[in-house]
Amino acid sequence: MFDNQPEHSIGGTGADRAALSAAGLHKAYGATVALEHADISLVAGKVHALLGENGAGKSTLVRILTGAVAPDAGGMMLNGKPYAPHSLLDARTRKVATAFQELSLIPNLSVAQNLLLPNLPRAFASMVSTRRTLEAGAEILARHGLDRIDPAAEVGRLALADRQRIEITRAIDNAGQVLILDEPTASLAETDWLFDQIRKATQRGVAVLYISHRLAEVREICTEATVLRNGTTIASVDLGDASDGDIFEMMVGRKFAHQRKPRVMRSASGEAARLAVMDLCGHDLQDMSFELRPGEILGVAALEGQGQQELFRMLVGIERPHSGRIEVDGAPVKFSGPRDALKIGSGIAYLPEERKTEGIFSGLSAATNVVLPVMGQAARGILISHGREISVAQAAADRVEMNPRYLSFPIGDLSGGNQQKALIARTLATGAQTLLLFDPSRGVDVGTKQSIYAAIRAFADDGGAVLFYSSELPEIVQLADRCLALYGGRITRRFKGAEITEQSLVAAMLGHVTPEITEGVLA
Amino acid sequence: MTEVQLQQPAFHDSRPGLVTRLLTGAGLIVMVYVLLYVLYAVQQPKALTSYSIAALINNTAPLALAAAGQAIIVISRGFDLSVAGVISICNVVLAVYPLEGPGGAAVSVLICLAIGAAVGVMNGYLVAVLKLQSIAATLATMIICQGIALVILKAPGGSVAEWISYEMTDRLWGVIPVSGLVLSAVLLIWMVLRRTSFGISLYAIGADESAAALSGINTTRVRLLAHVVAGCAYGLAGFMLSAQTATGNPSAGTPLLMLTFAAVALGGTSLSGGRGGIFATMAGAATLTLLQKVLFSAGIASFYTGMFQGAVLILAVVFSAFLVRLGDRK
Amino acid sequence: MTATSKTAPPETGFTQNGDTRGSARVTRETVSTVSVAILCVMLLLSARLINPALGSWSQVETVLVLGFFLVVLSFGQGVVILTGGLDLSLPATITMGGILATSWVGAGNPGEWYLLPGVLVACGLVGLATSAGVIWLRVPPFIMSMAMSIIVASGLLGYTRGTPRGAAPDAAVVLMKSHVFGLPTPVVALVIFAIAGWLFQSRTVYGRYLYAVGTNVDAARNAGVPVTLIRILPYVISAVCAGFVGIALVGYSNGATLRMGDDYLLPSIAAVVIGGSSILGGRGTFLGTVGGALLLTILGTIISALGLEFGLRTIIEGSIILFALLVLREELFQKLRSFGR
Question: A441 CB contacts (<8 Å, ≥6 apart)?
Answer without folding.
Answer: A420, A448, A449, A452, A453, A470, A472, A475
